[in-house]
Amino acid sequence: MATIMHGERIGKDGQLSVACSAVLFDPSRQRILLTRRQDDGRWSLPGGRMEPGEDAAEACVREVGKEYGSMAGDTGAESVMNLDTFLTEINRTYGRPALVAGVTDQDRLRAAGAIGVRRLGHDVPVTVQDQFHIGSVGKAIAGTVIAVLVDQGRLSWETTPADVFSDLAATMDPAFREVGIVRFLTHQAGLAPFTEDADWLPFAAWSSPPREQRRAFTEHLLRRPPAVPPGTEFLYSNAGFTVAAAMAERVTGHLWEALVQSSIFMPLEMGSAGFGWPAHAQRDAPWGHWVTDQGFQPDPPEDALRLGPLLGPAGDIHMNVADLARFARVHLRGLAGQDSLVQATSIRALYRALGYYARGAHKVGYVGSAGTFTAVLLLMPPRNQAFVLMTNAGDDTDSALDTRILDALSALFAAP
Q: Whole-structure pTM over 0.85, yes or no?
């Protein structure tokens, strides 16, 4: 395993790095792949620096994927279509600092690409291995965590806050006492939206541990009348996911973040996934960019607003394109009636509550942006396909990311 060694005169940045190189043969095993270095023009084996905790094989897969836009670790020996040319042409119109996309079916990643830079003003190119903040696409992950707990018998879709917080039941507004957790996950619990920064200001000074904050916030919400009667209409709300997280923490005794890791990230081997802004986890990760009248402005990670433990369950996760595609496969399989990480009955129950079956829809999408990154996950179950799109820039009124670009990408992979 690699470790970092520090010394006064070791390396460029005071670090001694362990390097690795990969030998890639063609099918005949008569030729090997070489790469030309940008610094001195010499030919060499592809490879790079090992990261702490990696072994040589893991480092080689990551470095080869980073350099060549392939997902070697995700696809094994099977090829992945490169989307770089497609994304370059698309970005001539939309001009994002970077675009990353992937296409998957139930079995594996079929296509991936990455173009642009990690941050404007610097020429470090983005790669398919880079992590992007996915915002409210994380709501799909939150719903899946609850589905795992339903499969385990710790919750049911109709478990109510009064069932879980019996000590709070007497002080809850009566309208909330019979609201099942599935309604909090599908924006039908009647909670206010909590989509503006000002909505969270009354809680900004809270400093207790995350689990205590989420319980206190749940108590605060449920003591007040709902914004609309629960179950009567769709009212988008970030707060519902905080309530669901608090309920999960209560029945399991574990922090929400630990549940996400143990229920989703670890069993799916989503090694790039984590919490918060990517550059907080990895120094050279992509930066987000604000949309301004002067164009896209980089958002330094040290200045970036932290979403915190209350808003976190609604969407404070980062990952790379392959890992989001890996997660999407769980939902494709479930909607096709196949058990995997989650039983198909649980996935279908969640989508039934979302109204997917009632609408006779052929696709369902998740869009997420916390202001400086945007991510889209589009599931098309009848076609056995899911599409992932990520950018390191905030959403805007053009809505290009969830309309024109995805329409073009899905058309590229439509059956003849």
A: no
